Amino acid sequence: MKRLQFFLRTKLILSFLGVIVLGGILSLIFGARLIRDTLLSQAQAKVRNDLSSAWMVFDEKLGDVKDIVRLTAARESISEALRGGRKDVLLRYLSRVRAENGLDVLNLLDEKGRVFLRVRSPGASGDDLSKNSLVRFALERRTVAGARIVPREELLGEDESLAAQALLEFIPTPKAAPREERRETSGLMLQAAAPVIAADGALVGALTGGILLNRTCDIVDRIKGIVFRDERYKDRETGTATIFQYDLRISTNVKTEAGERAIGTRLSEEVKRAVLDEGKPYLGRAFVVNDWYLTAYEPIRDIESRIIGILYVGTLEKPFLDTAARVLRTFTVIAALCTLFLLALLYASTTRIVRPLQRMALATRQIAKGDLSHVVDVKSGDEIGQLADSFNRMTSELRAANEELVHWGKTLEKKVEERTRELRDIQEHLIQAEKLASIGKLAAGVAHEINNPLGGILIYSHLILEDTPKTGPHYENLKKIVKETTRCKDIVKGLLEFARPKEPEMVPTDIHDLLEKCLALMERHPLFQNIHLQTTFAPGLPRIVADGGQLQQVFMNIILNAAEAMNGNGTLILKTWVDPAREEIAVEFTDTGHGIKDEDKKRLFEPFFTTKEVGKGTGLGLAISYGIIQKHRGDIEIRSEAGRGATFIVRLPLKEKSA
Q1: Rounded to the nearest 10 degrees, what angle do helices 383-407 and 318-368 cross at?
Q2: What is d(CA 106, CA 388) in angstroms, rounded to the nearest whole number?
Q3: What is the secondary structure of 402-425 as a DSSP string?
Q4: Which of 16-20, 358-362, 395-399, 562-566 is the most confident on average?
Q5: Closest CA relative to residue 210, chosen from 114, 93, 118, 141
Q6: Of 128-137, 202-211, 366-375, which gets the smallest average pLDDT?
Q7: Sign of the Cα pseudo-torsion (382, 388, 391, 397, in order)
Q8: Measured on CA atoms in the order 12, 17, 20, 25, is the torsion positive or negative?
Q9: Is the backbone of residue 234 left (phi > 0), alpha (psi -120 to 50) or beta?
Q10: Per-residue pLDDT for 458 more than 80?
Q11: d(CA 635, CA 131)
């Protein structure tokens, strides 16, 4: 079977096109996931904040009920009328309070918790409500409010219309958890209770009032208006809010397929298990009645912390998915246009590469026909141009050789040998070039492994240096090897110390002892021979809990930097004192060096930032020192002006602070 043949340009275009297409596909895959995840995470964060706003509306409504009951119970006329048994006066006033404030229930109880007056049903009284936890707190002279499950018997005692309002038949709901019941007869009420106290301070009774939430949508609609601003997407409301009685929707603006409020539908099993069974908030994607929403659920608890319902807010997931799809489509179109542009650019580039080769192929055919006067017209400075020049020289030499063959046929063998030798030299040159290229690749690979034997180089160079006389010709060179190798090692060590700092070993530590040790170590240093040292140590400086070794490393680094800033000639002042207001001790280092520029102060503790000459610092010393002081819950303060020296103040807490 004959193999399919491709021209060079086609091969180049197909090769680069394959790389471009593969990169584009991978970018689309990862970009789509990134866009989707980013949009959904931002939407989920918004829903979490929306739930906080919903709780504010819910608590505000509960607070309104509490204030109404508290202020009404505090009226002196209520206590006097209750003591005097004047039901007619109480009924007229409390009926007006209930009507004006939209309360479903308003009851006046005596001091034993029995109903003295039921405003909604004045004829029904005398029943004992002392077991009601809210009433119990009110009889203890406390005003309380909370959500409460009201059983059907109590609702019937108030009014049959309230019992009918609370009665809800379950509507089959996809993904809901199975329940044996088929309807709910009790109701969820926001209720408050307050004591009724006479002028002489005696408790004469209690006042309770509440709003039944079943089939009442004022709260959820207010949440939707405040939080979601009644936004719509494709004729659908994007934001929804719901109050659940256990897992039953009793107040909601979630709509069914028929466009009605989904009152009577139930919670999905997954959310019920998390919120009602485990008592945890639920944040995430959830199926709500007939569509997917980004949701937030939190349990509603009664005054005794029992879970009796759920407050929910959610936003439709589809707008975010559609936005992600639009962004992805835009990204795809841009990628396709970029691919077309790159193809045009690639075609132009390959034309510039292939055209000289086509000319050379044409020249070879002409020469094969015997036209030794043909010249390849390529004037580029790259390898193709060099090859064309060599090709032209070759044809010129062939032409000259042919002329010599005509004139001097007898010297044909000699010319052939010379030409053969030249070709052999060219071949050897190409072989040598390939060897050098291979060696270059090998060297590049070895460079990745050069850090491993660095420690061995340092050890053996030290040993050779110790055995070499100082007057020997190689001593200085060996010192440079040791110095530069040590610098490489210090850079790696400093980087590791900065990346993986060791946790401090906290023990009682005397700062003055540490400073004395640092000065004793530095007094023989060449830089300190012409430096005047002044110390002012606070007497009786308390010991602190710290890692002495790490603090000594910080002090040594600051002292050495000060000596280098003064070029070994100046005054170094060390002070210590106690700052009782901040509960800290302070260690101050002041030098008379060249100071620090304002623009350098901000970057002084950045890793690898240094103002020293190249080769004289790694830029890690102060960064490591700052990390150590932070581990000790302290701080480093810098005061300096360019040309006027610098002051470093290390502040450390007197008492060990927790992380």
Answers
A1: 10
A2: 106
A3: HHHHHH-GGGHHHHHHHHHHHHHH
A4: 562-566
A5: 118
A6: 366-375
A7: negative
A8: negative
A9: left
A10: no
A11: 60
Q: What is the pTM of this model?
A: 0.49
Q: Over range 173-201, report the average pLDDT.
A: 90
Q: Which residues contact 50 (CB under 8 A, 6 or more apart)?
A: 227, 228, 239, 296, 313, 315
User: What does the alpha-carbon distance between residue 510 and residue 406 come to, in Å, rounded to a whole number?
Assistant: 104
**Sign of the Cα pseudo-torsion (622, 624, 627, 629, in order):** negative
DSSP 276: I
Question: Using 50, 70 and 90 to split pLDDT, how confident is the model at 410?
Answer: low
- How confident is the model over 649-658, as pLDDT tens digits? 999 998 765 4
249: Cβ contacts below 8 Å, ≥ 6 apart: 242, 243, 262, 263, 264, 265, 266, 267
Q: What is the pLDDT of residues 39-97, one digit of tens each?
A: 667 777 788 888 898 999 999 999 999 999 999 999 988 988 888 889 888 999 999 99
Neighbours of 530 (CB within 10 A): 12
DSSP string, 2-22: PPPP--HHHHHHHHHHHHHHH
Burial of residue 628, with CB atoms counted within 10 A of its CB: 0-12 exposed, 13-18 middle, 19 or more buried: buried
Contact 530, 488 (CB under 8 A): no
> What mean pLDDT do residues 141-153 have?
93
pLDDT surpasses 90 at 648 = yes
| Span of 71-85, 352-366, 527-541 with lowest mean pLDDT | 352-366
Q: For residue 494, what pLDDT is reported? A: 53
List phi, psi (to 5°) of 191: -130, 145
Q: How confident is the model at residue 412 (pLDDT cuts 50, 70, 90)?
A: low
> Alpha helices, DSSP H only, in 577-655?
598-601, 621-631
Decide if 290 contacts 200 (C-beta within 8 A): no
* Residue 242 and residue 252 in contact, taking contact as beta carbons nearer than 8 Å: yes
Cβ burial 325-360 (10 Å sphere, 16+ → b, else e)? eebbeebeeebeeebeebeeebeeebeeebebeebb
| 119 has pLDDT over 70 | yes
Pairing of β 530-536 and β 569-579: parallel
Which tokens in the block code for residue 565? 């800033």
Per-residue pLDDT band at 2 (split at 50, 70, 90): very low
Q: How far is CA 64 from CA 55, 68, 211, in A?
A: 14, 6, 11
Name the residue type at position 494.
Answer: G
Give phi and psi for 529, each to the nearest 5: -65, -35
> Do 509 and 544 touch, CB atoms closer than 8 A?
yes
Alpha carbons 570 and 27: distance in angstroms, whole number: 61
**Are 56 and 323 within 8 A, CB to CB?**
no
How far apart (Å, rounded) are the C-alpha atoms in residues 64 and 190?
10
In the chain the domains, ranked by start, together with CATH numbers, are: 46-321 (3.30.450.20), 454-498 (no CATH), 501-653 (3.30.565.10)
